[in-house]
């Protein structure tokens, strides 16, 4: 982190709509608060498996609540999440591993595209309800985020390399080391200590802890 700025890491997976909310709020505040925001693409499936966590929607009552909650949150934060009952199933049956590896490859080589690229993946999955595991969708996401087709091609070739696979695995393990059990997991490094905040509704607490 730059002198005197608080490093804030956001561990996220584009399958998680709450991660999108947390992402947008932190992106809006990164220039208002004295923070260095570091986007950390990780794999939610790996975190759930390692911690024995279950998707909240598996509990029917919680699933019902989640739908209402998500609609309210989307309206409040002005993030265009469109959610309905069948999305809970879609979320459980979709694999974002390819997308998260693609974002990881971008992080390793062209980090300046991280914000628009991640946002565009969420837009596709949560606003336009598209299957982002399909290569043609990854291509159009990359194009919309401003990546050239040559660069996108290079990144697609990187996706299946051990370097990218290991990096995503390591980032996921790092989130677990901080105590993550779901996403978004936000880690603020303040006074020489990591402070973990889970979810998109603890960002006021985060600001209070880091003195913003």
UniProtKB/TrEMBL annotation:
GO cellular component, one term: peroxisome
Record's protein name: Glutathione S-transferase kappa 1
Gene label: Gstk1
Keywords annotated in UniProt: Transferase
Coiled-coil positions: none
CDD domains tied to this protein: DsbA_GSTK (cd03021)
Span of domain DSBA-like thioredoxin: 8-210
Catalysed transformations (reactions): RX + glutathione = an S-substituted glutathione + a halide anion + H(+)
Active site: 16
InterPro entries: DSBA-like_thioredoxin_dom, GST_Kappa/NadH, GSTK, HCCAis_GSTk, Thioredoxin-like_sf
Annotated signal sequence range: none
Lineage of origin: Eukaryota, Metazoa, Chordata, Craniata, Vertebrata
Family (UniProt): Belongs to the GST superfamily. Kappa family.
GO MF term (any one): glutathione transferase activity
Enzyme class: transferase
Catalytic activity, EC: 2.5.1.18
Pfam family, one: DSBA
GO BP annotations, alphabetical order: glutathione metabolic process
